[in-house]
């Protein structure tokens, strides 16, 4: 269930939003001040935030700065174009003015959650039980972290980007040369061997197939 944090000091508006969102199948979190909003955000990690600007404690603008990792839809009575532009450039995912049409708000929520899922999926590579977080550069095998060198990571990433293809040695060296200029044709075999062993030590499975005289590929 997706969790939405509603930040508004107007209890009537907050209650109305909670009722609408609950009917749509969302879990709803509430905050009535800017300070409380930051606390709930840090503790509950919501999927999306509906943020009013006129809040006691921290202002909506101050709260927005601390919610960079989550889509925030500003819900405000401010209608000035300059205010909207400033907030959108400052990190807000969207802006809707009060009073608002509930169908439009729900549509905007759906769009932002969909975009978040697409962004999240693009941050990961997964082939079988091999998984790479391309932002943190973390690699896991069957959900167990494995520590790779920069060269080993580059080799594995290239193989996972082309899981059904044989990558020729020359192509592999060329593709990873930007990230790993120290890798040569002579050292490539050793890097592959080290990578294969690290992965195999965790799962007992050999993930890399050597195609003699040509190159390497991930095993089916």
Protein topology:
Layout: E1 3-7, H1 11-23, E2 27-31, H2 34-44, E3 48-51, H3 60-65, E4 72-76, H4 81-89, E5 94-97, H5 102-122, E6 124-127, E7 130-133, E8 139-141, E9 144-146, H6 150-161, E10 167-168, H7 169-176, H8 185-203, E11 208-211, E12 215-218
Parallel strand pairs: 1-2, 1-3, 3-4, 4-5
Antiparallel strand pairs: 6-7, 7-8, 8-9, 10-12, 11-12
Helix pairs in contact: 6-8
List keywords for this structure.
8 helices, Arc Repressor Mutant, subunit A, Rossmann fold, 220 residues, 21% strand
Describe the structure.
Helix 6 (150-161) crosses helix 8. The protein is of the alpha/beta class and 220 residues long. The protein folds into two domains: 3-122, Rossmann fold (3-Layer(aba) Sandwich); 124-218, Arc Repressor Mutant, subunit A (Orthogonal Bundle), CATH 1.10.10.10. It is elongated, with a radius of gyration of 24 Å. Helices cover 45% and strands 21% of the residues. The mean pLDDT is 89.
Q: CATH first level of the largest domain: which class?
A: Alpha Beta
**Class per helix and strand makeup:** alpha/beta
Q: How many beta-strand segments? A: 12
In CATH, the architecture of the largest domain is: 3-Layer(aba) Sandwich
Tell me the CATH topology of the largest domain. Rossmann fold
* Whole-angstrom Rg: 24 Å
Uncertain residue segments: none
Q: Helix share of residues?
A: 40-55%
Mean pLDDT: 89
Order of helices and strands: EHEHEHEHEHEEEEHEHHEE
CATH H-level superfamily title of the largest domain: Response regulator
Q: What is the spatial order of strands in the main beta sheet?
A: 2-1-3-4-5
Strand content: 15-25%
Distance between the termini: 34 Å
Largest sheet: 5 strands, parallel
Which of globular, elongated, flat, extended, rod-shaped describes the shape?
Answer: elongated
- Specify the number of helices: 8
How many domain units? Answer: 2
